[in-house]
Amino acid sequence: MHAWLCTTPTGVDALEWTELPTPEPKAGEVLVEIKAASLNFPDLLIVQNKYQMKPPLPFVPGSEYAGVVRAVGEGVTHLQVGQNVASLTGTGGFGSHVIAPAAACLPLPEDFPLVDAAAFIMTYATSFHALMDRAQLQAGETVLVLGAAGGVGTAAIQIAKAAGARVIAAASSDEKCALCQSLGADATINYSSTDLREALKAATGGKGPDVVYDPVGGDLAEPAFRSIAWRGRYLVVGFAAGPIPALPWNLALLKGASLVGVFWGEFQRREPKANAAMMATLLDWYQEGRIKPVIDSTMDLSQLPAAYERMGSRAVMGKLVLTR
Predict the structure, then answer these.
(1) How distant is the alpha carbon of residue 20 from its chain centre?
(2) 157, 159, 231, 281 — which has fewest CB within 10 A?
(3) Domains of the chain
């Protein structure tokens, strides 16, 4: 097998395309031949040694991928050789093969394209867990999605619309706002050229959004929280902007608002039955056409450094997928 190997987490330039022994699956594991792997923001942080999970060196980055089961370990009965699966294991995706826990593999319907499958689990599981579980989103409520043209943002727009909510999508350019509108957003805000608070007042008649979905953090957090509706829920999803914001706690008091943490990975680990039910719902929604990953572009796996550069420049809308 071959893979992009990180021996020193000093950045993308330290990755090397390396030939490695093809491993054999142990009990409870499967060998997956990778056909597609998506690039997520944590994949950039992890090779810079900036992510909360720090795998032992050396490691193969690539958190999310889809492919074909080529071998199964002892005790694996729900997966068969030749079956298409998607998985999110944190590492291992940017190579030709990977060993994955069988329990972490999502069996795919035959008509599920592998490029879509590689861009499915992280964004839709995060967004569904955030909106439907943590925020308890109700039909008719208004959701503000920050960073709305990114992977989790585009997933959040689709899930909120499928749940019957009104969506205000906020992004950093007119092009990104147009993408959000094409996905069903009821209103858009370009926060690079428009005052976020004033735009939210206008878009909600002064009431503010019931739910704020925030994978960005940074300078957008405080104006968004100041704009939230009475009994609003502010979803802390991530910090793509870099800085972790410090919010005045009196804002939560004055609005009767909740600051709600979203950590899908830990939810998956602690509540596997609830997570499995959620993933089954998401597969149904995909097959019904209610959700579909937004694919920015596909690139060959050999172009991983260029793909990282595109992601680092904030140019990606939806998901960038590497194929082989």
Answers:
(1) 29
(2) 231
(3) 2-120+293-323 (3.90.180.10), 123-265 (3.40.50.720)
